[in-house]
Structures are given as C-alpha cells and as structure tokens.
Amino acid sequence: MHKEFLMGNEAIALGAIAAGINLAAGYPGTPSSEVLETVAKRRPRGTYVEWSVNEKAAMEVAAGAAYAGARVMVTMKQVGLNVASDPLMSLEYIGVKGGMVVLVADDPGPISSQTEQDTRHFAAFSKVPCFDPCSAQEAYEMVQEAFDYSEKYGTPVFLRPTTRVCHGYASVTVKDADEYRVNRPEGFVKDSGRWVIFPRLSLRNHEKIEARNEALSEVFSSYGRNCIYPSGGRGGASGLGTAAGGDGASGLNPSGSIGKKGIAAGGISFTYAMEALKDSPQPARLFKVATPFPFPERLALEFLDGLDEVLCLEELDPVIERELTYLCGKHHLPVRIYGKLTHHVKIAGENSRDSVNRNIADFLGKAAGQEDIAGSLAQSSSQLSFQPSPHPSSQPSLPVRPPVLCAGCPHRASFYAVKTAMKGKKTIFCGDIGCYTLGNAMPLDMVDTCLCMGAGLGIAQGVGRIEPDTCCFAFVGDSTFFASAITGVVNAVYNQANMTLVVLDNSTTAMTGHQPHPGTGRTVMGDVTAKVSIEAVLRGIGVSVVETADPLDLSAAVACVKRVAAEPGVKAILFRSPCIAITKPSGCLHIDQDRCIRCGKCIRELGCPALVTDSGRVCVDASLCTGCGLCAQVCPVKAIGGGDGNE
Amino acid sequence: MNKNIILCGVGGQGTILASKLIAAAAMKKDIPVMSAETIGMAQRGGSVFSHVRIGEGICSPMIARGTADLILGFEPGEAVRMLPYLKPDGQVVVSSRAIMPVTATLSGSSYSGDAMTAYLREQVRGLCVVDGERACRRLGSPKVLNILLLGAAVESGALGFTEDELREVIKERLPEKFHEINFRALSYARERKETGQLRA
Q: What's the CA gap between B148 and B117, in Å, rounded?
C-alpha cells in the first residue's frame, strides 16, 4: 500500500486496475473522461484500452470481452448512457461471465451537460445494481468490490460517481502493483441457450433478475458502505475515505441520545452532511446509502426505527427519498420523510456545503412536530447555487465570464465565414455538442439549435421539410461526426434532403480534453492506426458535393460556403484547422496604432478574447494571441499585422 | 495544521498547478489533503477556482462559506467573487491585474480592477495586493504569476508552508527547464516583501 494524490477518476481507474481488468472501453465526456485515460496511462501489460467510436460501441466491445470471461469496464458520462442503453438493457437479461463495471458519471448542476438525468433511476429501470461512491478513497475501494459483486451475480453493475467525486482530489491509499489481482479470462464458451436472446430466455431471465435483486437488497443491507451513524457496532465508517482515513463523525454524538431525527444521504452530499453534523450542536442519526439500487431495505428499516422525521440529502432525483417514503407506506411507519418531493430541498442543481449546512440547521433547529418546517426550509433552499451570493455592502458589480471560444480557435473562423457568406439569406444554423456549441455566444450568434450528440443533422432536415425556403446548415465536430452524425447523413441522402453539412475538423476531441478519435490516426494506447477519412465517408454515402477549406483563409472560406450552399441536395464543407491547444502558436499579431481607426470592427465581429481595449485603443493581449490572423483579414484598414503569413 | 485555501482566477492562469503544488507540499509532510477544481467547459476563459483542504478529519473536498483561511486571487474581480468564502480573520493575496472579459470588451462596459482592489482593501484586513503584472515583466514570463502568488502567500504566513518546501515540490513536479524562473519568482516575492515593494 502507498499514498497518491489522485483525482476521483484516477482513483477509479487505479481501483479497476487493482481489480485486474483486462479491457476498458469508453467515449469521452465530462466528468468521466479521466477514468479511461488513466487506465490507458497506468495499465499493466496485457490490458486493452480503447476510445470507442461512441458509448454503444464501447458497451458492446466490453460485453463481448466479458462473455469471454474478461474483467471489463465501460466509461461514459450520463448522457452517453442514453446512447449505450440499447445494448445495456438487453445485456442485463443475458448477463456476463467476467466482471463488468459500467462507469457512468453524473453531472449535477449541470456543469458540463445537457441534462440532470440520474443514473440511479436508470439502474432501477435497467435492473442493473448501482454503487454510489462519496469520495475518491471510497471510489477506489468500491470499484474493486463492484467487480466482485458483478462476477458473483453474473450481472453488469453501475459505478455512478458525480462531478465532485470524479474531479475532487484526495490523498488516496492504493495498492502496490504486486497486490493487484490477476484475471485470466477463460475464453468464450459456446452456449446458444445462454448468449442468444430470445423471448423465452428473456422471460426466464427476467424472473431470475427480479429474484436476484430482491436478494441483493438483503445482501446490500449488510454491505459495509451502507451504514448508520452513530454506528452502534455496525460496519461504521468503513471506506468513508475522510482525509484522516477514519471516522470523522465525532460530532454525531456517539453516546446514544440521537433524538428522533435522521438524515439520509448518498454520494458527495453524504460528506457534506458529515461535515455539517460534526459542527452541529443537535445530534441526528445519519444513514449513508452507497447502493441506491437495489435499495438496502432492511438497513433502511433499522435506520427509520424510532425516528419521527427524516431529511433526505441527495443530488439530481429524489431516489433515496422515494425509497424511504415507499418503505414508510409499506410498513405503516409513522415517520415523515422530507426532501425534494416535499420542497424542503431544492429540486434541481448541485448541493453545496452551504446548502446542506442550511438544510440541516433548519431541520434540526426546530423541535419535532412544533412548527411546520416546510416554510423555513423552503425559504432557505430558494438560493442555494454553488456560486456564492453577492457579498453585502458596496460590492462593485462582478465581471461576467461565460466560457468563450479560445483566442485563435478555428471554429470562430468557420462560423464567421458561414455567417459572412450567408448574410441576408434565410438560414438556420443547427449546432451540436462540443467546443463549437460556444459559437452561440455573441457576436458570432451562429448556433440556433443544440440538442444532443449528432442531432443537428436531423434537426436541419426537419426544419427544411417545414420551411423549404430556409438554407439549413448543420455544424458537427470531427469526433461527434464519427460518434453519431453518420446515420444522419445517410438519412439526409436517402430521403433527398436539402441541407449543408459543415464538419468542423480540428483533429481532436477538444472539449473533453483532446482525446484521439477515428480520424486522428492514433489510439489511446499510443498506437498509430489508419485514419478514417471524413471526406471518403461522405462520398461513400453519396454526398456528391464535398469541399475542404481552411477556415483561417477567410476569403477562400467564404467563397467555398457560397459555392457549396448554392448546390441542391445534401452537400458538405470540411473546415480543417487543428485545435490551438494541440498546435504551437504561430506568433502574436500586433496593431499598428497609427493606422488603426478605432472602428472596433475586429472586436465587434469576432469576439476574440485576445482583442481588448485599453483606454480607447484596440490592443492584442500577447499572452492569448496565437497569430491565427483572422482579425487581420477582417480589419478594413489593414492595421493588424505580424503572426503567420498575414503581414 | 488545518487549512482551507481557495485559489481563483480566469481559465488558463495556472490556478490548477498552484493547487497541485500546495497539495504536494502537504503530501510530503504526510498531512492529509483534499481538493476540488473547475474542469470542463467553464475553463474556456471562464471563472475558475480550486478548493484545497489540508489537515486531519476532512470528509469533503469542498470549502464552506466563511471558513477559508486564505484566498489566492489571480485576478481582483475573481477574488471579490470568492470573498464570501473567507473566514472573518482570513487573508487574501491578490494580483492587481484585471482581466477584461470578452463580454465587457464587446459591450464597451467598464470593468475596473482598481474598484475591485479598493473593495478588497475595505473588506479584508489581512490583504496583500501584488503587482503581478510588473513582477511577471521583471521575471520575464506571464506564466510565473501562480508561483509568485504562492511566494507572496508564504511571506504573508497564511500558506502554512515554507519557501524551501515549495522549492522542493517545484523541483519534483515541474520540468527542470522551469525550475530556475519559478525559484526566481519565489525569491522575488521574498525580497520585495522584505523591502516592502511587493505590494501594488
């Protein structure tokens, strides 16, 4: 054993390696991406790792390996699970031979996602058991236990951390390499009665799954990470993973008089509750839920025994709250359950130390049954976002800093070229998921819709069916193109749509941290591989007009857009220019102040963070400028020079 | 030693590396440490923060309002944004150089770093305002702001680590070609502190 300072995602990866995984597959997505990257970086010899083309492909690759007895992990963010849900729903009916952990990172807030969907609900829906870690240390240990449960019960299992667990760092105690488990897969054994899904098999296995999950509810009631504080001789703080590595719940009044109030919590919210109760003068019984599905009913009944009121603290959906409410009904318990459903805790968004502190103070501050706590709690929960509220007194108003496209980002040039070329025409610009979603911001204002990975293509077609006089554009990044846009192109060609596809090819998966993809010619394990050509794919599908252009050559790019958009049917433009984060800047531009007429066109049209004003003068921030030269091409008096080839 | 430290600034300023160095210094002394930071979309020119918590008995990487011992502000407006986290007698080390958001440049609205610094002076007794721009110019790189602020925090006594301890982790964690300039940033903070020239 030794200690390492690890991000939660790195801890999960090292836990999986310690559990002897043979294969890991996934698709990048915040906050999950570092898991697979760390497995790739730290993998022992013989472990196979891949960025799959999307989550569905990853799930299927992993399923195959698990059929052959390998220990496998699949990684994705919560919306990625929607893509992988088709294989997963059926896989649960088939089961696995080797252990399979499906790592799905949820994103309360949401901080970097389209939805606040809750994978704990997906667990109940798909009948797949779910583990919910509260810290990096617990995640490290839990993933190893999850593999054991998966193998023992022959089912995939979820490990469902949330952003603050994924991206929180801690000094984590981890195993040395010689302590790792070694798993030697037996290989695939033919048995069509086991591996081929048919209605009769589904019916039989459905019955087995329901029986198993009922049994697992009982098993999980004895699982040490589901626990009640004060512990009363139970598993206690096992694996809580406080920085101290022990039971930090000293303020939980272990002497026994815990009153008639209890708090139930899971994930990061449990650690917030622990911190709050340490400082709280009022004692409370605390229930930590580490396996939201199947819910540990027997342990929950122990927790509820003798309580009058329970406050549930969890992010996303009220899963624990519903389970406890259900148990109270089922067993006729006179316990009032408070939480999101009762509007005592805010229904959406992230919890914080402060929101949980307030929720608990309000809950424990009132004597049971005296005053309706609803009013005070609802009031206090009205303003609980993670961002601090304005400081009192004369605070000057704070600068607003929405995320923006980087200085020198080629997407800015691509959007500007399309905007310039289509000026005055009736258009719709359907965006997609990636850095280029930021093209919606002023002054570009070039993203009219954004729904989910690959959706822009379909939406452009749909709008075109209803408004045939609109020039319909779909923008899609290179990684997203491979992940989920190809079927949209086939659909457009087959159904004779009239639209322009713009592929923004920056040779990487930028938003999630520059992962390779099928077009880059590299794999996550560092191997060189054949590049899949986007142009060849488009031509193969039957898109007859496919033009490639450098977006940083503004006049050529504008001419290209005009030419292509005028063609009938489905046509495509490939804007190719690498992400500035993976290339060396070509030098910094400067503004000739004698020539500059202070018209501000460069700032007004481009919104580049490197263009700033300093007491009326337009200047280039040398620490940000990459020398892309776009502003030099926009300047009406040629006052901007330097950099690469634009002097 | 128990410390809650918040580092804040604008994406790309080097807050994450600074928080990693603090954590590494704690790890070296075998003190438990947890941290949390902004990752993902918000990094692209947005407001970013790191929470670093050092000491025994910590359950969560997040810091509650009113409990931070130290705020390291890489940008004055961002320091003001995080001020509600400072405990009553906490300290703030802040660079005086404002970074203009694109939205302000576009709208022509005024955002004044001086107003932010003035507000900090009014609100925080334990305040150290560092002329980060001048220091970086003297040191020859805008990238040393993070180490400079760490150095200033060492000098203010609020960091809980010595200059030598920081030098050690810089040696271990950064490529050798960056050692010299970062050591100079630490020395700069110490010397200017001694002669009272660090402050803006």
A: 18
HEC string of A568-607 equals CCEEEEEEECCCHHHCCCCCCEEECCCCCCCCCHHHHHHC
**CB A244 to CB B45 under 8 A?**
no
Orientation angle between helical segments B163-173 and B145-156, nearest 10 degrees: 150
CB atoms within 10 A of CB A126: 23
Closest approach of chain B CAs to the CA of A117, in angstroms? 18
Six-digit token string for A119: 């994978």
Residue A93 lies in a domain: yes
CATH number (domain holding residue A372): 3.40.50.920
Where along chain B do its domains lie? 3-194
Chain A CB within 8 Å of residue B110 CB: no
Q: Is A75 helix (H, G, I), strand (E, B) or coil?
A: strand
Q: Which of A112, A391, A609 sits opposite B41 (nearest CB)?
A: A112
Q: Let me know: does A612 contact A619? Beta carbons within 8 Å.
A: yes
Contact (Cβ atoms closer than 8 angstroms) between residue A324 and residue A300: yes
Nearest to A11 by CA among A157, A169, A136: A136
pLDDT higher at B45 or A239: B45
Residue B41 contacts A where some CB pair is shorter than 8 Å: yes
Question: How many CB atoms sit inside 10 A of residue A211's CB?
Answer: 10
Question: Token pair for residue A59?
Answer: 């799930």
Q: H/E element holding A611?
A: strand A611-614
- Name the minimum distance, in Å, from the CA of A394 to any CA of chain B: 8
The confidence score (pLDDT) of residue A377 equals 45
The residue written with tokens 């037996």 in the block is A186
Structure tokens that stand for B85 in this block = 């986290």
Q: Which CATH superfamily is domain B3-194 in?
A: Pyruvate-ferredoxin oxidoreductase, PFOR, domain III (3.40.920.10)
CB pairs under 8 A between A and B: 175
Q: Is B18 on the interface with A (CB under 8 A)?
A: no
Which of A566, A582, A598 delimits the end of a domain? Answer: A582
Cα–Cα distance, A431 to A437 (Å, whole number): 6
| A520 close contact with B: CB closer than 8 A | no
Domain residues for the domain of A621 are: 589-642
- ∠ CA(B106), CA(B108), CA(B113), 5° rounding? 105
Q: Which residues is A261 bridged to in the sheet?
A: A309
Question: Does the beta-carbon distance from B106 to A438 stay under 8 Å?
Answer: no
B20-44: burial string, b at 16+ Cβ within 10 Å, e else: bbbbbbbbeeebbbbbbbbbbbbbb
pLDDT value for B193: 74
Q: Which residues contact B97 (CB under 8 A, 6 or more apart)?
A: B75, B76, B113, B131, B132, B133
Contact A464, A470 (CB under 8 A): yes
Give me chain B's average pLDDT, please: 90
Tokens 């400082």, residue located:
A279
Residue type at position A380? S
A381's CB contacts (< 8 A; 6+ apart) are A343, A344, A345, A346, A355, A358, A359
Q: What angle do CA A608, A612, A618 make, to 5 degrees?
A: 115
Q: Residue A92 is which amino acid?
A: E
Angle, helices B15-28 vs B163-173, to 10°: value is: 110
Contact A272 B60 (CB under 8 A): yes
In a domain, residue A503? The reply is yes
Same domain, A244 and A365: yes
DSSP code string of A129-163: -EE--SSHHHHHHHHHHHHHHHHHHTS-EEE--BH
CA distance B192 to B200: 11
- Residues of chain A falling short of pLDDT 70: 231-258, 366-393, 643-647
Contact B116 A396 (CB under 8 A): yes
What values do phi and psi take at A324, rounded to 5? -70, -40
